Amino acid sequence: MRRAFITALWALMACWPLLAQIPGPLSAQVIPAGARIRLALPSVPTTAPTLLTLADPPRLAVDLSLAASLKTDTPGVPPVRQARVARFDPRTLRLVLDLDRPAKVVGARWAPGPTLEIDLAETRDDEFRRAAGMGRRPLPLMSSDPLASVEAVLAGTRAAASPDPPARVPAERLRRATARPVVVLDAGHGGHDPGAIGVDGTLEKDVALAIARVAARQLERGRKVDVRLTRTDDRFLSLAERVALARRWEAALFVSIHADSAPNPEARGATVYTLSETASDREAERLAARENLADALPGRDLSQEPVEAQVVLVDLALRDSMNRSAAFAQLLQRRMEPEGVVFHGRFHRFAGFRVLRNLGVPAVLLEAGYLSNAEDARFLASDEGRERIARGLARAIEEWLAGP
Predict the structure, then answer these.
(1) What is d(CA 27, CA 85) in angstroms, rounded to the nearest whole number?
(2) Are residues 111 and 227 in the same domain?
(3) At what angle do helices 374-381 and 383-402 cross, to 10 degrees?
(4) How far apart are the first and last CA of the chain?
(5) In the prediction, which pLDDT does 355 show?
(6) Does residue 114 have a cis peptide bond before it, meaning omega lies within 30 degrees of 0?
């Protein structure tokens, strides 16, 4: 019975992205920047969504290449008065955001469902009218590949782990159309794996995801790099799956974001870890052992699976990539400290982190602080603390990949 339950649970996990839905096809919610609009779609569009800024009255229109008959509306939240969806022509679905004041898109992304998420903030009237004069332009997606590409990679690594056929996922329809270098931000833990638990009850998985999202938004605004997130919600990903995504996206830099805990409540400060077959100290060895257990599921260890997982978990600890990772760790500390981020006395450590075995590109694991320390926990749980961490992280990434 237990074995059958585990098999059924694993099969459900393999296909859960196709089952995940939001309440209703269209919703609006308040976020710190202003408003977030979420639209659940029947499938991933065949071409990239486009954005139109329309004046008199002020509106934003997002066109999606879907011949769907979805027609719905919902009350908005400032600066959006109302959001509505209808068929614009036989091949296009249009989302219209009626505004009660000038606003702009500050972020957009694909979430499970598939669901399109659009973040808006207020803007000046002259900027809004200037945008209206630009005509149709691509919607500034946080990732130029739709969520389907993520699901396709994950389905490939999960196929060997499930006795049932893997869930069918949409094929990758959009490819990266920019030469910008790719950075992969990997929010640690997720789903059934909460990671460390803080003195105030804060979960590591939530801290890591929040920092990754804020850093991604800052990098997108800079437009110097192409930023990808291994997860945008509370899902579990094995270490092999995280590495597989970075390989598929041809990452030039990989940053795994975490928060630490220690038996000593006085221990505090951020630490940057890089890959080595020999740990720098017992603390680094302890942490690597704990993080490498993230693959442990009832009855499964994906690190031992064949096919994609076997490929991505080969020994990739090349001396050149380890040296470049160490150099980026130094840069990360130099850019984060001016933002008020406190670092541990030994801020750069190294050990055999499985998730850093990433095909010879620079890869680091950032422990943003200790959730077991009251001061660090407050900093990591605050919007200001996460903004400061993300700002320093984004500056280091841009300097490393695109130059000062």
Answers:
(1) 11
(2) no
(3) 80
(4) 59
(5) 56
(6) yes
Do 120 and 83 touch, CB atoms closer than 8 A? no
Range of the domain at 124: 21-138
User: Residue 287 is which amino acid?
Assistant: L
Report CA-CA distances (Å) from 215 to 5, 89, 203: 39, 37, 19
pLDDT in tens, 204-250: 999 999 999 999 999 998 888 999 999 988 888 887 788 888 888 88
pLDDT of amino acid 80: 95
Domain boundary among 116, 138, 160: 138
Q: What share of the chain in percent tops pLDDT 70? A: 69
Question: Could you tell me if 185 and 310 lie in one domain?
Answer: yes
- Fill in the amino acid letter for 64: L
- Let me know: does 270 contact 342? Beta carbons within 8 Å: yes
327 token code pair: 């150099």
Distance separating alpha carbons of residues 38 and 26, to the nearest angstrom: 6
Give dist(CA 103, CA 280) in Å, integer. Answer: 50
Q: Quick count: other Cβ atoms within 10 Å of Cβ 342?
A: 15
Residue 195: closest CA among 298, 290, 300, 301: 290
Q: 372 with 199: CB under 8 angstroms?
A: yes
Residue 151 lies in a domain: no
H helices of 24-135, where? 125-132
Residues whose CB falls within 8 Å of the CB of residue 55, separated by 6 or more in sequence, listed in order = 128, 129, 132
**Higher pLDDT pick, 118 / 135:** 118
pLDDT for residue 166 is more than 50: no
Confidence of residue 381 (pLDDT cuts 50, 70, 90): very high
Range from 25-29, 41-45, 162-166 that averages highest in pLDDT: 25-29
Collapsed DSSP state (helix, strand, coil) of residue 256: strand
Beta strands in 296-342 (DSSP E): 296-297, 300-301
Q: Which two tokens stand for residue 324?
A: 């470049």
What single-letter DSSP state applies at residue 245?
Answer: H
In-domain check, residue 168:
no
Contact 280, 342 (CB under 8 A): no
* E strand or H helix at 348: strand 343-351
The pLDDT tens digits for 65-83 are 876 667 888 999 999 999 9
Give strand pairing partners of 137.
Answer: 51
